[in-house]
Specification:
This protein is of the alpha+beta class. It is built from four helices and nine strands; from the N terminus they run E-E-E-H-E-E-E-E-E-H-H-E-H. It has one domain: RNA polymerase II/Efflux pump adaptor protein, barrel-sandwich hybrid domain (OB fold (Dihydrolipoamide Acetyltransferase, E2P)).
Amino acid sequence: MNIPSNLKYTKDHEWVLVEGDIVTIGITDFAQGELGDIVYVEVETEGETLDKEEVFGSVEAVKTVSDLFMPVTGEITAFNSELESNPELVNSDPYGKGWMIKAKISDSSELDELLDAAAYTELVG
């Protein structure tokens, strides 16, 4: 299982790449493995400001649908439109081409509440 050390993580299995006040968010390798083959990614919150832990979209796999939760409060500035025609990128490249949204964070202190790679590794065991 791949858990890059340069990312932050949530207990809900989202990853966060921090670049100044912009974060890129997706689901972890563990999460995509648990979900199985992803057939649809829905994000209809682009342009909205959402609070931490609010649902920003959902991922549909062959057997289940799973909500996606904001790891930090912020405005969703971009959705990876490549996922509309290629949702399987979340399975094949969860930390690269399978990213889901970008957001401008409202409160950078919330980043301190996220898990580092070691803590996330311990969580998923």
